[in-house]
Design brief:
- The chain is α/β, with parallel strands linked by helices.
- It folds into 2 domains: 149 residues, Medium-chain alcohol dehydrogenases, catalytic domain (Quinone Oxidoreductase, Chain A, domain 1), CATH 3.90.180; 157 residues, Rossmann fold (3-Layer(aba) Sandwich).
- The protein has 11 helices and 15 strands.
- Strands 3, 4, 5, 6, 7, 14 and 15 form a 7-stranded mixed β-sheet that branches. Strands 10-9-8-11-12-13 form a 6-stranded parallel β-sheet, sandwiched between helices.
- Helix 5 links the parallel strand 9 and strand 10.
- Helix 3 packs across helix 4.
- The N and C termini lie close together (10 Å).
């Protein structure tokens, strides 16, 4: 099999292809011939050496794949060779053959492409957990989505549209026409304007019910101030520390300077909630992920959304794929195709 390894911490060019024997599934596992692997910002931060959950370098990154079952381990119910599936992987997804616990594997609908399936696990499970489970999203809620043009941002926009929320999306101006076409109510040019002031103007100073923030840094205090009473600020990343394509001590120091301190007394007095989400820390709770994914698949089945695949890259061009994302060229999902 082919695998893409993070050979050392550094820029995208540290990604290297290596050959290895095909793995044999253990009891309770399924082996998948991969047709598409998803790229996520956690992969990029791991490559840079700033993602605390990543294995020790060298390692194979990757949290999600789609493909065809070609071997089934002992004790696996309901799956057989030839099934079209997609799966959540705890690293190792940048491979053309992957073994995964069957509880982390989902059958694809007949009309679900491998590319669509590979775009679902991380982005849509994260967005679902934030909005539906933790955020208690309701029709008419005002929701600010930072990074609206990214994979999780578009997934969050899709879910908000399904539920009937009013959406505000922070994204670079070049992405605004696509986002408006996708159903975004208000596009915010965060690069050239202070998003906090823009939001106060748009909401009449009444605030927002939900804010989704993968950026952190200077965003933290601004977002908190923008919450309406009973509002929920949901953190799911700190991309502000990835200021370049290499690990930066300055970026880490800036994060610490802006690190907020929400005391229980302050939260009670303000009637606000601050929530953290890290899907990777739910690896031991596949039951939760399965329940959420069943709803996501049902919405897909009803044609209420389709993930937007911005670009695909071959395994040989994995470094170019990471450059593409870090250069902020993508709108939506970027995939690797073995």
């Amino acid at each position: 099999m082919k695998q893409i390894w993070v050979s050392k911490a550094g820029p995208p060019d540290v990604l290297q292809i290596q050959e290895a024997p095909d793995p044999t599934p253990h009891s309770g596992e399924i082996r998948i011939r991969v047709e598409a692997s998803g790229i996520n910002f956690a992969d990029i931060m791991g490559r840079m050496g700033i993602y605390p959950d990543a294995p020790s370098i060298p390692y194979v990154p990757g949290y999600e794949v789609a493909g065809i079952v070609d071997m089934v381990g002992q004790g696996v119910p309901d799956f057989r060779e030839g099934d079209k599936v997609f799966a959540v992987t705890r690293f190792g997804g940048y491979s053309d053959v992957v073994c995964a616990p069957y509880k982390q594997v989902f059958k694809r609908l007949d009309w679900m492409t491998a590319a669509d399936a590979a775009a679902l696990p991380v982005n849509y499970l994260t967005a679902y957990m934030m909005l539906i489970i933790m955020g208690s999203l309701r029709p008419g809620d005002k929701v600010l989505i930072h990074g609206a043009g990214g994979g999780v941002g578009l997934a969050a926009l899709d879910i908000c549209n399904i539920i009937g929320a009013e959406t505000f999306g922070a994204a670079s101006p070049a992405k605004h026409p696509f986002l408006i076409q996708r159903g975004l109510y208000h596009a915010i040019d965060y690069r050239n304007r202070d998003f906090e002031q823009v939001m106060r103007d748009l909401t009449g100073k009444h605030g927002l019910q939900i804010i989704l923030d993968p950026v952190g840094g200077k965003n933290w205090p601004k977002n908190y101030r923008l919450l309406a009473p009973a509002g929920r600020l949901i953190h799911f990343g700190v991309s502000s520390i990835a200021t370049g394509k290499r690990r930066s001590l300055l970026g880490l120091l800036r994060m610490l300077v802006w690190l907020p301190f929400y005391t229980p007394i302050k939260l009670m007095n303000d009637n606000k909630a601050v929530i953290g989400v890290n899907l990777g820390h739910l690896w031991q709770r596949p039951d939760m992920q399965r329940n959420w994914m069943q709803q996501i698949i049902a919405w897909y089945d009803e044609a209420l959304f389709r993930p937007h695949i911005d670009a695909t890259f071959s395994f040989e061009n994995a470094a170019k794929a990471h450059h593409y994302i870090q250069d902020r060229k993508n709108t939506g999902k970027v995939l690797l195709i073995p």
